[in-house]
């Protein structure tokens, strides 16, 4: 039984490591390119593409986090389950999965039988980020203060580190 638990833990840690990379990279690339854009070093068209790419990656990472919880919640230490559930609650409340399915993954509004209008996508984005894009990014990854459990990255890192600690014991 110990080997099965350890193998399950190793898989969980691998997945969490990927999440850390996805969340940090998505946020930091957006921030870095915003600096270039604000300094007129890249055109608007390029910045829009970079934003779409990074947001798509972040939204997909949240969908994967939901899937992680479905398959690995049993390996998450009890003291960190509420922090993970808070992320899941925020995913639900912000309608991140709906944004992924409607705006990132498709162009077509099935109800209206037409492509999504840019204004509809922007409204969904505005709702998802709670009208404050910078705060949304800081909630995901705040490199100045990734304090547990205030950011997504801090929760994932803490869960990963605790799983490693527990399953590294003889």
Describe the structure.
With 170 residues, this protein is mostly helical. Helices cover 75% and strands 2% of the residues. The chain has 7 helices and 2 strands. The protein has helices at residues 2-38, 44-72, 78-93, 96-104, 118-128, 133-140, 152-168; strands spanning 108-109, 114-115. A two-stranded antiparallel ribbon has the order 1-2. Helix 1 (2-38) packs antiparallel against helix 2 and helix 3 runs antiparallel to helix 7. The longest helix has 37 residues, at 2-38.
Principal-axes shape call? globular
Strand content: under 5%
Q: Please tell me how large the radius of gyration is.
A: 18 Å
Distance between the termini: 14 Å
Q: Unreliable stretches, pLDDT < 50, 5 or more residues?
A: none
Largest sheet: 2 strands, antiparallel
Overall mean pLDDT score? 95
Number of helices: 7
Q: Helical content, roughly?
A: over 70%
Question: Going across the major beta sheet, what is the strand order?
Answer: 1-2
Secondary-structure element series: HHHHEEHHH
SS class? mainly alpha
Q: Total strand count, please?
A: 2
Key traits:
two-stranded antiparallel ribbon, mainly alpha, 170 residues, single chain
Q: Could you provide a short overview of the structure?
A:
With 170 residues, the chain is mainly α. Helices cover 75% and strands 2% of the residues. The chain has a two-stranded antiparallel ribbon.
């Amino acid at each position: 039984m110990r080997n099965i638990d350890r193998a399950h833990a190793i898989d969980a840690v691998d997945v969490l490591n990927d999440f850390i990379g996805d969340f940090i990279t998505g946020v930091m690339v957006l921030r870095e390119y915003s600096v270039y854009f604000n300094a007129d070093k890249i055109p608007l068209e390029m910045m829009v593409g970079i934003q779409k790419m990074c947001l798509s990656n972040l939204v997909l990472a949240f969908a994967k986090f939901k899937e992680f919880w479905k398959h690995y919640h049993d390996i998450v230490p009890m003291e960190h389950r509420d922090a993970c559930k808070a992320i899941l609650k925020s995913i639900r409340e912000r309608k991140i999965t709906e944004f992924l399915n409607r705006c990132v993954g498709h162009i077509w509004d099935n109800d209206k039988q037409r492509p999504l209008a840019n204004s509809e996508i922007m409204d969904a984005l505005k709702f998802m980020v709670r009208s404050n894009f910078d705060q949304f990014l800081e909630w995901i990854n705040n490199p100045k203060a990734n304090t547990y459990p205030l950011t997504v990255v801090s929760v994932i890192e803490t869960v990963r580190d605790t799983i490693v600690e527990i399953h590294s014991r003889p």
